[in-house]
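User: Can you predict the 3D structure for this chain?
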Amino acid sequence: MKSKKSRILLMAVLFLVSTVAAFAETAKSDVAAAVSEGKSVTLEYSVSLADDEVVFSTAGQEPLTFIQGSGKLFPDLEKALEGMKAGEAKTVELSPEQSFGPVNPQAIVDVEKSKLPPPGAPDRRHGHDDRP
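Assistant: Here is the predicted structure, written as structure tokens:
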């Protein structure tokens, strides 16, 4: 059975503060182009809790590439990226309502630690499969 401290940490993860460093993927001759609707954007980012604990980061991994305005990101995050230039960094704070939504007590599940994959194991959630 999971301790109360672990459960509190799981709920705290839903109250995220996203630190975003955006890099617009633009034509080589137009490196000053700003992020705008329909442009391809490559985003390196980290997600932190309110106490600055990093819970996810693309550092050392493949950055996220998306089309601005496609709806792939939270709408308020897309708004915050609008107008940024290649290489520019920005910190964006999103409330639960602006991101993953408020805590849903029915979505909290106790899992025995022994049933969790070891650190560094391939991600097999939601159909992800890193096998060749």
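The two ends are 35 Å apart (CA to CA). The CA atoms of residues 17 and 51 lie 9 Å apart.
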